[in-house]
């Protein structure tokens, strides 16, 4: 469970915002932040949270551009082809690493065409059904799926964390389901709420508001631990249905070749903002876990996940042509 102490530890010792301000004149015009999913989803949340504070720090607007589609591939390609001048940044979800494992081919090199800058936060994956569903527990869902092998699961796109969680979960508990991919978390959740799709694995940060309103019913956490905002919600591990942690992260990435002074400036300013108790608390309050990982740590995470996701995709049979 996230506590005030763990929050303090997560952000302790991080450099203050603006420490790299003396490096160069960047930015001299608005900075574009591309997000590969629709507005209102968990990836978009991080951009909206930092948009105005970063604009004030930089003296230039941070303009958010949502380019949804193909599980973030469209946005990733746009970023990879952009000039490495600091005026195009990418708020990527961890789909960035899973896409390399599930797509037959990509129009970019995940490892070599990008510059990791700063990883903001992670969000546990949670198993949800709609408010009018007769399913009350994860055990109920498994039993219902065994009676109805055509049960539908929504995902925010092929190869996303929710897709990984669904495929691993169904193999773990021995059920067959029909996976329906949508163009982002928001439309997927709406289909579950409407009852047109039975269930979904979705990130808590993107669904916590709907869960608090009663529109979604959380059944279990897909991650390794309970969370502060839903302290009574058990994990799949506790229920004997444990799956590898598929909780996604959300971080700033840029095209390959971004000058180091700009990397340092963005990383330092973002980490400084994540030290702000008000901003950190907003992340925790939606079920997020503050990471505040700088360029080197973020780069190691990406390299590690590229290898791990390739194994998971192969074992779970996740492939996108």
Automatic annotation (TrEMBL):
It holds the Pfam family TctC. InterPro entries: BUG, Bug_dom1. Transmembrane segments: none annotated. SUPFAM superfamilies: Periplasmic binding protein-like II (SSF53850). Belongs to the UPF0065 (bug) family. This is Tripartite tricarboxylate transporter substrate binding protein. It comes from Roseomonas fluvialis.
């Amino acid at each position: 469970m996230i506590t005030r102490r763990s929050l303090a530890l997560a952000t302790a010792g991080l450099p203050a915002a603006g420490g790299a301000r003396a490096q160069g004149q960047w930015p001299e015009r608005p900075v574009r932040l591309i997000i590969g999913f629709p507005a209102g989803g968990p990836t978009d949340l991080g951009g909206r949270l930092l948009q105005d504070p970063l604009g004030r720090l930089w003296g230039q607007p941070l303009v958010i551009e949502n380019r949804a589609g193909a599980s973030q591939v469209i946005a990733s390609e746009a970023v990879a082809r952009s000039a490495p001048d600091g005026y195009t940044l990418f708020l990527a979800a961890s789909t960035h690493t899973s896409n390399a494992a599930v797509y037959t081919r990509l129009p970019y090199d995940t490892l070599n065409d990008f510059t990791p800058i700063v990883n903001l936060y992670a969000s546990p994956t949670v198993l949800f059904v709609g408010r009018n569903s007769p399913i009350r527990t994860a055990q109920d869902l498994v039993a219902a799926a065994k009676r109805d092998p055509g049960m539908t699961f929504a995902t925010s796109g092929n190869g996303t964390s929710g897709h990984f969680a669904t495929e691993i979960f169904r193999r773990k508990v021995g059920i067959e389901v029909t996976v329906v991919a949508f163009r982002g978390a928001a439309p997927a959740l709406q289909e579950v709420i409407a009852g047109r799709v039975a269930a979904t694995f979705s990130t808590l940060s993107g669904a916590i508001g709907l869960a608090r309103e009663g529109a979604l019913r959380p059944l279990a956490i897909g991650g390794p631990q309970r969370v502060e905002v839903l302290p009574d919600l058990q994990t799949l591990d506790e229920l004997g249905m444990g799956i590898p942690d598929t909780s996604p992260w959300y971080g700033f990435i840029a095209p390959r070749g971004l000058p180091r002074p700009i990397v340092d400036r963005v990383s330092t300013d973002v980490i400084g903002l994540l030290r702000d108790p008000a901003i950190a608390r907003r992340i925790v309050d939606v079920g997020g876990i503050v990471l505040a990982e700088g360029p080197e740590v973020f780069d190691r995470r990406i390299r590690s996940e590229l290898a791990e996701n390739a194994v998971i995709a192969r074992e779970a049979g996740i492939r996108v042509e």
